Amino acid sequence: MERMYPKEIDVRTVSPLALAFVGDGVYEMMVRERLVCLANRPPRELHKEAVSMVRAEAQAAATEIILPLLTEKELAVYKRGRNAHTTRNSDEYHRATGLETLFGYLYLNGEIDRVRCLFDTIMGDTTDGE
């Protein structure tokens, strides 16, 4: 997978919530791709399963899996998103926003292999723990 829009962007200048906006789409696309590849099911079933995997509670739990694996830079991006002022004031929602911010940052920065590695780790699809 590579970025679909080829224009270069300085991701350091993008707001954390804009990064989360992109990261939400990236994360959901990866979930949908995984579900379809695992089993060819009716769209209604796929949608129901995808929603359960991308909701704030699931994403907050996912952060706990990958936090120990993040680089210093990635952790700073995650925290920037987690601490961003959002309309919802819950710990789960803030952690989910941090995850989405990280995925948006990595995706827009062209670090697609890292996005895939972190996603695979969240989904338990790794053999070497990375």
Describe the fold and architecture:
The protein has helices at residues 16-38, 43-54, 56-66, 72-82, 91-108, 112-123. It has 130 residues and is mainly alpha-helical. It has one domain (14-123): Ribonuclease III domain (Ribonuclease iii, N-terminal Endonuclease Domain, Chain A, Orthogonal Bundle), CATH 1.10.1520. The longest helix has 23 residues, at 16-38. The chain starts with 15 loop residues before the first helix and ends in a 7-residue tail after the last helix.
Q: Can you lay out the helices and strands and say which pair or pack?
A:
Elements: H1 16-38, H2 43-54, H3 56-66, H4 72-82, H5 91-108, H6 112-123
Helix pairs in contact: 1-2, 1-5, 3-5, 3-6, 4-5
What percent strand? under 5%
Query: Uncertain segments of ≥5 residues (pLDDT<50)?
Result: none
- For the record, give the distance between the C-alpha atoms at the N and C termini, rounded to a whole number: 19 Å
Q: What is the succession of H and E elements?
A: HHHHHH
Taken from the alpha-carbon principal axes, the silhouette is: globular
Helix and strand content put the structural class at: mainly alpha
CATH class: Mainly Alpha
CATH homologous superfamily identity: Ribonuclease III domain
Average residue-wise pLDDT: 89
Largest sheet: none
